[in-house]
Amino acid sequence: MNQELTYEAAYTELQQIAEEIENETVSVDVLAEKVKRASVLIEFCQQKLRATETEVNNIIKQMENKPGA
C-alpha cells in the first residue's frame, strides 16, 4: 500500500484520524491502532518532505551552476 500512497492521501488520512481522536469518536479498542497508523503516516510524510526538499535544492544548485546564470 505504501507504494501507492501519496503525500496528499497520507495527510488527508492523518487529518481524519486526528479529527476522530479530537471528537472522541474512536473507541478505546481501536485507539492504539489509530495512533500506530498515524505514526506510520507521519513518518511517510516526513520522508516525502525531506526527499522533495533535497530534490528542489539539487535543482536550484544545478540552475546556479549553469553558465550564464
UniProtKB/TrEMBL annotation:
Enzyme class (EC, first level): hydrolase
Cellular compartments per GO CC: exodeoxyribonuclease VII complex
GO biological process: DNA catabolic process
InterPro entries named in the record: Exonuc_VII_S (IPR003761), Exonuc_VII_ssu_sf (IPR037004)
Coiled-coil residue spans: 4-62
Keywords, ordered alphabetically: Coiled coil, Cytoplasm, Exonuclease, Hydrolase, Nuclease
EC number: 3.1.11.6
GO molecular function: exodeoxyribonuclease VII activity
Pfam (any one): Exonuc_VII_S
Protein name, per record: Exodeoxyribonuclease VII small subunit
Domain of life: Bacteria
Gene: xseB
Family of this protein: Belongs to the XseB family.
